[in-house]
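Next comes this protein.

***
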Amino acid sequence: MSEFTHFDEQGRARMVDITDKKATSRVAVARSSVIVSENIYKNIVEQKNKKGDVLGVAEIAGIMGTKQTSTLIPMCHPIPISGVSIQFEWNTINTGEYELIIQAEVKTVGSTGVEMEALTAVTTAALTVYDMCKAIDKGIIIGETYLLEKSGGKSGDYKRI
């Protein structure tokens, strides 16, 4: 079982020991998307949602999600977050459908990476958009969520092709 780092010799779950890992600067960028109707798109961009500024609230939710990652993911280490930024971009995908791209960049200086924190950030932001807009149309689709790139740490850099 030694090749599985989240299990001990008896096959029991454990948190990986990072005591001896070198603290380095680490950055992770993740992306998700939300596909919405034209009605929801206009509601968001014209800031007419009764619950408030959808993207403003989603941005805060993404930042808060980043900070809560270790409480949501069982084997995830609590780490000091040195920076989080969330960006939004709209694409027209079909007549009457719009895609909101959500991207998060998370930074730390530590002994483990921030990939999970970046993924949690975009997921939390996407879920917040759904929550704030579901009264208009429940047909919202949360799209693919993935790591776009990461740097730092023993495993080196990664960039999705």
